[in-house]
UniProtKB/TrEMBL annotation, chains A, B:
Gene3D superfamilies: N-(1-d-carboxylethyl)-l-norvaline Dehydrogenase, domain 2 (1.10.1040.10), NAD(P)-binding Rossmann-like Domain (3.40.50.720)
Pfam family, one: NAD_binding_2
Superkingdom as given in the UniProt entry: Eukaryota
Name this protein carries in UniProt: Oxidoreductase-like protein
Gene Ontology MF term list: NAD binding; NADP binding
Domain 3-hydroxyisobutyrate dehydrogenase-like NAD-binding: 174-294, 318-430
Stretches that traverse the bilayer: none
Domain 6-phosphogluconate dehydrogenase NADP-binding: 7-162
Length: 434, 434
């Protein structure tokens, strides 16, 4: 029997716990640390070795994964008193899998050098896919590092990812975080669109279960809708699996970077205001699926519809059209920002389409957008008219029923800006700032 | 002593009551009707003649003013059972001073013809200026009608307006409502920007009175800020002077028309979602100044700032910069929509600058925008850079302090869309759809 290498881990939240226990299930000895003691007991029950301090979790570990929530937490965990880096052995591989600004990931490299620990192989490796895929070892990971670091440490990323879902991003440390950020453009918009869709449906008197059945498998599908709607229907928000504070943090990384480089991200900015509104209503620690409460306090799974089947079908179509319109503009915003930042669009597509940012619209239409941005002949139909007309009907119904559609109206305004004869090219031009 | 002509009036709300009692003060015999009985008693105390029915209020009145809230109410009052039109004498002048879609004003003309009452001189004459100017007879009025109707009925509009504030709009019936609608683009955005500014200031720990003192008279001034902030500071929302439902109705006229003609009005659409959100929080009947409660429940006049004078001054500048950025994009949205609808831009400017849509930014910068839209040589400095940089600082501070800025972010996104070297021309191009 081969002895597998010991792994240090800190940050046993929804994602980190899944990742760490997956490694345990693969017979790795994993020593885990978290500030929240009950999590450590759960981790011990799952076969992990709980640690009482960061330095202890890092001692003698040639491989260490840091999966805390924010850059500020990472800074403290890595370099603070009794922290990880000081305790790591020479030539250890350190993985930062949190979603952080690329500039922060780069600052870690620099700091390692500054404090005389350039022996540490640092890999910038944010993840995507949600808690279930974390626990199954089938995440998507986008990683940036030196060739030497990958040579020594790529194997562990393979353990955490599904086949073909480890994306080695060109550009070294920071490139992984950059890719994650542009992926999160889709995630940030899609997550709140789930609540907006259920809020709209509730205002139309539709039962949430019927909404889910209608959306799943159709053109309005998104990973986030399929994933979050389970918790929306169950009102499983306390704490649920993914807190509002997490996506708010990720969205802030996007909008801050966009401001820095003077790039417009109108739908992300709209999403951010809704996350902040949720935070201010004390929903911050709750699951982001609970943001449907910005629209309705009635449990959406309990709504009794008195509509005829035909009426119901027509209204369900409106809900789908809302999501489709939002997803289309989200795709344009995502690919355009990726292009602006010099991210490989082919890799971006390949990554997003099966990660948490995926949607049916993205899968079908993003390739056309990428062709346009790369100056290739665009073969496919790419008029906005059908999308715009459908979204206008949605927005009109919402206006009549007094249901706020922040993203729906934002997406429609952009389609209107693209002009009466607007197509994907004119939509993308709205993001082509120089 | 000359006997002045008798005037019929219906709709004695905040505006209508002021208009009707102003006419009473000018020695006109005014017979007024309202569905709300206590208002009729107040009207009698002010020297008016209360009427117990619409038809009675219209009987023998050669001049009749209808100032109800909505097109639906107007339709009922004019043509419903026991309504106004049937009771009007031959060749009466009928003024519709409510804010309604231009298509509705045109439908009134048509209906008068259809029912054999084309003898009635109909004047489409929406007003602007607020309750105080209504009561002083110093409103702005934008009127469309036939030459014959104006010949017979213009004098009464003169009585209600300040010198130079009666705008006869080319295009006949509907043209007045059209002008009012594009004026309301500014009003709709400015009204909610007052609450967003006070909400932002509250989040920064600034006292509302100091905010008002800082804004009034400076570059961040708007009519709406000066007017609404009195009620914001006094929490005079119940019912206050201008209900959320009124500006929501006006905003819906704008966004519906924009959808109809495929024109983007992103800031108006953002404003509309906030009005709907307020309505859903049961603020509909309250004054629109009370929408500051979407940001904070603390009375803004009671906030005790612990900041140093220098800090306070810097934060107050941020509040002003927020308003200035919003007002600039509002001006672009207003003049662009006016242009798109074929409204005279010179008249639009002249009207708005001293009506409820006025702002210091509009006064200074709209002429440059109009020159650009009219293809004239633009002499003035018209870079967006200083506006964009200032608004970026605002949005960054709001992000850090977790304060939602729906309009501020919307305005910034548009400035970013205008490009790094963006100027007024590139901002206006965002609205130049074909």
């Amino acid at each position: 029997m081969t002895t597998k290498p010991a792994i240090g881990f800190c940050g046993l939240g929804a994602m980190g716990f899944g990742m760490a226990t997956h490694l345990v299930s693969q017979s790795y000895p994993v020593t885990g640390y978290d500030v929240y003691a009950p999590t450590l007991s759960r981790f011990a029950s799952a076969g992990g070795t709980p640690s009482s301090s960061l330095s202890e979790s890092a001692k003698d570990k040639a491989f260490y994964i840091c999966m805390v929530a924010t850059a500020a937490q990472a800074e403290q965990a890595l370099f603070g008193t009794d922290g990880i880096v000081a305790a790591l052995p020479q030539n250890a591989v350190l993985y930062l899998t949190s979603t952080v600004p690329s500039s922060y990931a780069q600052s870690v490299s620099k700091k390692l050098e500054d404090i005389g620990r350039s022996d540490v192989y640092f890999i910038d490796a944010p993840v995507s896919g949600g808690a279930i895929r974390a626990a199954n070892g089938t995440l998507s990971i986008m990683a940036g590092a030196s060739g030497a670091a990958f040579e020594k440490g790529k194997w562990l990323l393979d353990e955490l990812t599904a086949p073909g879902k480890l994306f080695i991003v060109d550009g070294g440390v920071g490139a992984g975080s950059n890719m994650k950020m542009v992926h999160q453009v889709l995630a940030a918009i899609h997550i709140i669109s789930v609540s907006e869709a259920f809020g709209f449906a509730a205002g139309l008197g539709l039962n949430g279960k019927e909404v889910r059945d209608h959306v799943i498998g159709g053109k309005a599908w998104s990973f986030m809708f399929e994933n979050r709607s389970v918790r929306t229907l169950a009102e499983d928000y306390f704490p649920g699996a993914s807190a509002v504070t997490i996506i708010l943090k990720d969205t802030g990384i996007i909008t801050s970077m966009a401001n820095l480089v003077d790039f417009p991200v109108p739908l992300c900015a709209t999403a951010e205001q809704l996350y902040i509104t949720g935070l201010n209503k004390d929903y911050g620690a709750n699951d982001d699926a609970g943001l449907v409460r910005l629209w309705t306090t009635e449990p959406v799974a309990s709504i009794q519809s008195s509509r005829s089947d035909d009426e119901k079908k027509a209204k369900l179509e409106l809900v789908s059209d809302l999501l489709i319109g939002i997803h289309l503009v989200a795709a344009a915003e995502g690919v355009s920002f990726a292009k602006h930042l010099g991210v490989s669009l082919g890799q971006y597509y390949e990554l997003c389409v099966e990660a948490a940012g995926g949607s049916a619209v993205f899968k079908e239409q993003a390739p056309k957008m990428i062709d346009i941005l790369e100056g290739k002949q665009n073969e496919g139909e790419a008029s906005l008219k059908s999308y715009r007309d459908a979204l206008k009907a949605v927005v009109t119904e919402a206006r009549n029923q007094r249901i706020p559609l922040h993203l729906g109206n934002g997406a429609l305004s952009l389609m209107e800006q693209a002009g009466k004869e607007g197509d994907f090219t004119s939509l993308l031009k709205l993001y082509s700032v120089e």
